[in-house]
Every structure is written in structure tokens, then in C-alpha cells.
Amino acid sequence: MGCTGPLAELGGGETVRRAMDVNFLGMLRLVRAVTPSMAERRSGCVVNVGSVVGTAATPWAGVYCASKAAIHAATDALRLELAPFGVHVVKVVPGRVKSGIGRANTAQIAGGHGGKPREWGMYREFTAAIEERARASQGAGATEASALARHVAERVMRPRPPREIVYGSLTALFAVLAASPVWARDAFFARRFGLNRKL
């Protein structure tokens, strides 16, 4: 579930809580439901889906990025915790993947389901950039979801699945950004998302 907007104005509202509940806590609830039987039979594979934005957070999507970073951290811990039981844990780090998230993000800030369109206070001059970020992952070149699914399934079905699968559009760029000095990453994202000017 996406959550688009400046963190300073989103605060801890219902949209933020729902995004963290669905994206991160939902994953933990599922892990709790399935791992006891895997541990009992000493086999199984848990596959958690993060995102490249969990490695290099983008402006206007801080909550979504945080939820994916939380998945990455929890998956790394879980991999070690379940190893004694013979259970594999795989972290999937997709790039841009075609889905309905762009439409859902746009609807969220436009006041979907009959709600009032979101009006930003101190960020009102950035409205166009925020709306563009809501759709950014669905641009030209986004990976087909079926291609990602086939790639991941082929690897997790191996007798010894990999610890991490990175796949899809923009993964190389985000690998470079994640490894870059913070000032360089900040400069890139500030320019990309309209934050390279003073008000």
C-alpha cells in the first residue's frame, strides 16, 4: 500500500498507520502464522517483498520507503532466526513494477472514495511534484509483474534459495544511489523531485 506526501504534513494519521500496518505488520502477522509449521517439519521458505526505495528513500514517499526498509531489516533478522530450523528466508528487492499502486496513490491524494482532495500547507508549491511522485513507479520501462513473479519463483523453488533477489527496472540505479555518499544521493533526489530550490 502506498502513502504519498511530505512526512511533515502526513504525521501519524490514518493513512500512515494503514500503510505501515499493511506493508510491514501484515508481513509479520503472516510470518507468525506460517513459520511454526515450517520449523516443526524443518523445511520451508519465507519470501518477503521489499523495494529498491527501502535501500534509498525518495522524497514524497517517506512512509512507503520506511515500510519497505522495515521489511528489509526484519527479513535479515528473520533469516538468521529461522536458519536453525532449516527454514530459508528470501528478501526480494524489486525495482519499478507495473501495478495499480500509481492509481491508488493518485486517488489517495485526490481524495478518492468521495473524500476531499488533499491540500498541502507548507508544501502547496510542491503539489505537482508530489502528484508526479505518486505515479513515478509506473512510468515507461516498468517491469511486468508476471516477469518479476517468474524470476522470483524460479529462484525460490531451488533447493538452496538465494538470500536476496534484486530484479527489475531501476535496480542498478538504486544500487548506485544506496552506495553513494549521502550528499550525492540527496542532490540526485532533490533535483529529481523538485526540492533543489529555496522558498
How would you explain this protein's 3D organization?
The protein has 199 residues and is mainly alpha-helical. It has one domain: NAD(P)-binding Rossmann-like Domain (Rossmann fold), CATH 3.40.50. Helices cover 52% and strands 8% of the residues. The protein contains eight helices and three strands. The protein has a three-stranded parallel beta sheet, with helices on both faces. Helix 2 (14-41) packs parallel to helix 3 (62-82). The longest helix has 28 residues, at 14-41.
CATH architecture: 3-Layer(aba) Sandwich
CATH superfamily: NAD(P)-binding Rossmann-like Domain
Q: Roughly how many Å apart are the termini?
A: 31 Å
Strand content: 5-15%
- Write the CATH fold name: Rossmann fold
Count of distinct structural domains: 1
Radius of gyration: 18 Å
Strands of the biggest beta sheet: in what spatial order? 1-2-3
Structural class: mainly alpha
Instruction: Compute the number of helices.
Output: 8
Low-confidence stretches: none
Mean pLDDT: 92
List keywords for this structure.
mainly alpha; Rossmann fold; three-stranded parallel sheet; 199 residues
State the gist of this model.
The protein is mainly alpha-helical and 199 residues long. The protein has helices at 7-10, 14-41, 62-82, 101-109, 127-135, 145-156, 171-179, 182-192; strands spanning 45-49, 88-94, 164-167.
